[in-house]
Amino acid sequence: MFEQKGILFILSGPSGVGKGTVRERLFEQDTELKYSVSATTREARPGEEHGVHYFYKSHEEFESMIEQNELLEHAQYVNNYYGTPRAYVEEQLNLGNDVFLEIEVQGAMQVKENFPEGVFIFLFPPSLDELKNRIVNRGTESNDLVMNRLKEAKKEINMMSEYDYVVVNDDVNRAVSKVQAIITSEHCKRERIETEYKTILEDDLNA
Amino acid sequence: MFEQKGILFILSGPSGVGKGTVRERLFEQDTELKYSVSATTREARPGEEHGVHYFYKSHEEFESMIEQNELLEHAQYVNNYYGTPRAYVEEQLNLGNDVFLEIEVQGAMQVKENFPEGVFIFLFPPSLDELKNRIVNRGTESNDLVMNRLKEAKKEINMMSEYDYVVVNDDVNRAVSKVQAIITSEHCKRERIETEYKTILEDDLNA
Questions:
Q1: I need a labelling partner for A150 at 20 to 30 A (CA). Which of A119, A137, B38, B153 fits?
Q2: Which A residues in the span 188-207 are in contact with B, Cβ-Cβ below 8 Å?
Q3: pTM tops 0.90, yes or no
């Protein structure tokens, strides 16, 4: 009766923050969540399946997807393209499945541009002291390099403003249960369900 | 390090929807949540404590609280006043405690006016069919009365628009865990923590 479209959740944050671990643990616990399957031009490795691990594309196909705006984000590593096909995400959402995407900050910002209705979760470093120590206490580095790293860290933290939620990764299990709480509560948001509930009620009452 | 102000959560919804049961079950599980202590002009019953069960006030004191806008909401039942003192709520929030208020729809709307930064949760009837059946199938009632009840139900459902979240009370445990998820995820909202996180970081990096 209360069927809802799925929601796209994007988990991102500075490199090294532990996005991959949080995502793995989350998928161990939530078997209904769909992981966003990426497209790539790299060759399938033994055991990998098209449509499960990746959608394997030729360079020409991939570039045509870029041109047709069929990707929520894409990037190039070494000589291969990687990207998130919009079609797969929308198909799953229309089936009522939530889709989960774990991605670097830059990719997340591309997704935000192409799919602003997604729910963006920023994974925050376990401790700011640690972050500072990592930056400042690399004794061998020049002052200039330290200053650059400080700037970079500040830039990354400032990206936080583009996100809907911030989860501190002080403990993987705690972070995972916060992400799960966000998923649950997003489905309870009034603006997502109001129209549908009211329509059902009107239909019911007029029946 | 990441200390946050508490949040006021308001659980409301049509009468008979099961607000009280959800609140009781929630408090069995979450011992850190503070229940909002009401003020009243009725006499303390044996075993009741001032500041625990109620803040006991004279009619004069209560009316002065109304005049001074010291109540987030109030109502009169029989010959007594009942209301939610703003001071208690704010004190708890400043201590970093979440405060929970379970209240009728009309009271919730008063709270919303006086404390819009609260998080408003609408508890939805277990099933709309049931609601419809309850309204239509009271065989003995006149058509006019049925029509009036239908209108009333529609009005109540329309109040939903004033809320942040809607939780269907199809199963008490499920409803409670949804409310808990909302509490957890509200604390992860970027706008609640951004300034603080950034300030801490700046302080850290400049130290």
A1: A119
A2: 188-190, 193-194, 197-198, 200-202, 204-205, 207
A3: no
